Description:
The protein is an alpha/beta fold.
Amino acid sequence: xxxxxxxxxxxxxxxxxxxxxxxxxxxxxxxxxxxxxxxxxxxxxxxxxxxxxxxxxxxxxxxxxxxxxxxxxxxxxxxxxxxxxxxxxxxxxxxxxxxxxxxxxxxxxxxxxxxxxxxxxxx
Length: 123
């Protein structure tokens, strides 16, 4: 199965997402968002197949993580699922324009997360 990185400032949210994905047989790595630089370095080191990242994180905005991934040659092809509490269509369109393949709204239903990951990984 795939290696999936989870970046969220909430430990509970990271654990929740990891549990749902491990149930499907995926390996997960939880990355604490200390800074955008630290997250990008951890992603380059671990080389995940997919990233699940929260949009609103103090000191480490999900939008900056996504932008950093797309600007880095080693991470530019990383598939990204972004989690957000924003529900406006305009905001979702901006996120997809950044290169996010899937936007999921919080609170995330484990089944919806599973389906999104399966679709992106071709499973």
